[in-house]
Amino acid sequence: MNLFPSILLGIEWDNNLRGKHDGSCTDASGNFHRYFHCPMGYGSFIKPNKVKLGRTLTEALLERYVSMDAPEVAPQDMLSAGFVMTSKGNLKQIELVGEKKIRYH
Is 96 exposed, middle or buried (0-12, 13-18, 19+ CB in 10 A)? Predict the structure, then answer.
């Protein structure tokens, strides 16, 4: 029984708390396998059939925030009902700069 499929996908994480190795491993028979190179502790393997295809950045933003044709939240870059209290106890209106640029760019 071959414990290692011919194709594995390698992931190099941005910190060593997520991975377990350096892109290599040793099988039960003692054979060394190098799939990719990364610093020790930054690497993980995954079988291709376990990968869930994601979505584009635009799809993720639309799902998380608002559709492109939704009414503007902050006309003239100001939230109409958004205020914060300053350290002196005054209310200051919240600015949302760049809403149009994000939506229409």
Answer: middle
SS3 sequence of 56-80: CHHHHHHHHCCCCCCCCCCHHHEEE
CA separation for the pair 11, 18 (Å, rounded): 10
For residue 90, the SS3 value is: coil
The domains of the chain are located at 9-50, 57-104
Decide if 92 contacts 82 (C-beta within 8 A). no
Strand 24-26 and strand 32-34: pairing?
antiparallel
Per-residue confidence (pLDDT) for residue 22, from 0 to 100: 93
pLDDT in tens, 51-79: 877 887 777 766 777 666 777 777 777 77
